[in-house]
Amino acid sequence: MKRICAITVMVLTLPAAIAPAVEVGQAVGPVELRTFEDHSITMDNYAARKGTVVVFLSSRCDATEQAAAEFNRIHVANRLKEILFVGVCSNPAEPTDALRTFCQTRGMIFPVYRDLDKKVARQFGAKVTPEFFLLDAKGVVRYRGSLTGPTEGSSLEAAIRALQADRSIEVTDIPAHGTPIDQPGPDRTIDNPYGTIAFSSELIFETIPGAPVHHCSTITEVRNGDLLCLWYGGSYESAEDQVLFLSRRSTGSRDWSPPHVVVRNLGAPPGNAVIFTDGLDRAWIVWGRMESERPIRRGSGWGQCRLLYRTSDDLGRTWSEDKVLHDELGWLPRNATVMLRDGTLALPLSGRVDGSYGSFLLTTKDHGRTWQRSGVVRGGSQPTFIERDDESLFMMMRRSPRIMQSTSADGGKSWASAEQSKLKNPGAGIAMTKLRNGHVLLVFNDTDHEPRSPLSVARSLDDGRTWEKPIELESNLGEYSYPCIIQTRDDRIHITYTCRRWAIKHVEMNEDWLFRFERPD
Q1: pLDDT tens for the 521 residues of the chain, in order
Q2: Sheet containing 112-114: which strands, arranged edge to edge?
Q3: CA 71 to chain centre
Q4: Which residues face 131 on adjacent strands?
Q5: Phi, psi (5° rounding) for residue 121?
């Protein structure tokens, strides 16, 4: 008697948590993801587009950092061509805010989701960051692995092109190299390469009774952070009733105080002036008193000015008596002082020296008790200057049709012959300053003819040797001229200038506003 043994065959179904990872040529199926707001979504809408690129990434991964610019470029080039990028972070240790900041500051303008239990990483078989998976309209994996391979045809970008053209993909699997998903890097500071723009502008005043015309502003920061703006105004330029007005913007305020007369000289009105602080935090006003025999025509009398000054020890609220800084006629200020690295305070001036006109510096090493004149540069007026990193001096001067420039290698004792720069000038005031980061800003009228518009700002990253393309602060009809520019202790940039001769305008900005024009969006 034969016995027949029955053999029972058991078929085991593996739980999803340990299901084998999808391979090239297989459909990935629905993918469970969580948003930064901790909302659950299911990605299975592959048919809505030609292809989907899933990139596993991490804010703590150097390889993701290094590859970001390239895969962002590929995304931007294909986002309107039915290719969607989707980011996945499978590192539960990364705070959501840090991950969000990383994506925002690295230009990732595609959806990025969390995979806190690493289920999605297991579903795809992702091992490192960054690792890329290209899915077709059926959710089938057509390419996996590295962003680029050893040949032109072995890359994610080549696979995308083939998918779009309905061609077979030449290389479908290139091992990815990066940070292991289960060994994330440490937390780190995430910088913001796009910066943050800041900008505001306003008229310091709209009208001043009895003084319809205003020009030639100058601005400084006093030791408590207040801003003081000074300019001349009256019936017209060189008028008998011309005076110096002063307005204050207190620290923490956005409003300017009503302008008040700070200098009035009957019979010899004040003209061009500059306001600044010295090494003792005293405020100074230096101006040209117009001593021409009157009556004179509008706009004349500048060659017959005597240089006067007064100081303030209380933040510009009260002032000393007027004193003569230089007794000969014909010297005039226009631009801000510069504190040199050796502690010398230098005031740029122009006027007649030894019978001919030129530009030069008045310098003091003892906070204004004594002053010495530098050498003279012929060929331009109303100088503005900086100290270069090599301690030489670089000067730019008003002259039509091009701004003139010169250098001094001995602290201003002697100057190279002035030569034309490439920057235009209609015969109007210019202003230059060196920021604490070493960048140089120049404000000028970027035109070689009247009217004095546009008013533009150019930046130099090499101490004025070359200039970036100027950008316009004002470009409407009318006159926008005679700028003054400073950087305050909070690193903000302040520019004041004549606004159509009706008023004085103030602009505040950071450097990012001037030279950052686009960010991913």
Answers
A1: 333 333 222 232 333 344 689 999 999 999 999 999 999 999 999 999 999 999 999 999 999 999 999 999 999 999 999 999 999 999 999 999 999 999 999 999 999 999 999 999 999 999 999 999 999 999 999 999 999 988 878 999 999 999 999 999 999 999 999 999 988 889 889 999 999 999 999 999 999 999 999 999 999 999 999 999 999 999 999 999 999 999 999 999 999 999 999 999 999 999 999 999 999 999 999 999 999 999 999 999 999 999 999 999 999 999 999 999 999 999 999 999 999 999 999 999 999 999 999 999 999 999 999 999 999 999 999 999 999 999 999 999 999 999 999 999 999 999 999 999 999 999 999 999 999 999 999 999 999 999 999 999 999 999 999 999 999 999 999 999 999 999 999 999 999 999 999 999 999 999 999 999 998 88
A2: 40-43, 31-34, 112-114, 83-89, 51-56, 131-136, 141-145, 173-174
A3: 26
A4: 56
A5: -60, -40
351 neighbors 327 (Cβ within 8 angstroms): no
Amino acid in position 83: I
Q: How far apart are CA 181 and CA 472, in angstroms?
A: 49
Q: How far apart are the first and last CA of the chain?
A: 84
d(CA 261, CA 378): 35
Look up the CATH number of domain 22-180: 3.40.30.10
Distance CA 333, CA 356 (A): 17
Sign of the CA dihedral running 272, 205, 310, 414: negative
Structure tokens at 511: 């450097």
The whole-angstrom separation of Cα 450 and Cα 458 is 20
Would you say domain 199-515 falls under CATH 2.120.10.10?
yes
What are residue 305's phi and psi, to 5 degrees? -105, 140
Supply the Cα-derived Rg of the chain in whole angstroms: 34
User: Which strands form 270-277's sheet, in the order they lie side by side?
Assistant: 270-277, 283-290, 305-312, 323-329
| Amino acid, single-letter form, for residue 213 | V
Would you say how long the chain is, in residues?
521
Rounded to whole angstroms, the Cα distance separating 490 from 124 reads: 50
Query: What is Dmax (Cα atoms) for the chain?
Result: 146
The total of other beta-carbon atoms located within 10 Å of residue 173's CB is: 15
Question: If we measure between CA atoms, which residue out of 171, 312, 323, 180 comes closest to residue 246?
Answer: 312
Q: Are 230 and 222 in contact (CB under 8 A)?
A: no
Tokens of 318: 């009260």
Tokens of 295: 């009556």
Element (H, E) at 120: helix 119-124
Closest CA to 336 of 464, 228, 480, 263: 228
Where exactly are the structural domains of the chain? 22-180, 199-515
Closest Cα partner for 111 from 157, 156, 75? Answer: 75
What residue ranges in 165-210 does DSSP mark as E strands?
173-174, 179-180, 199-203
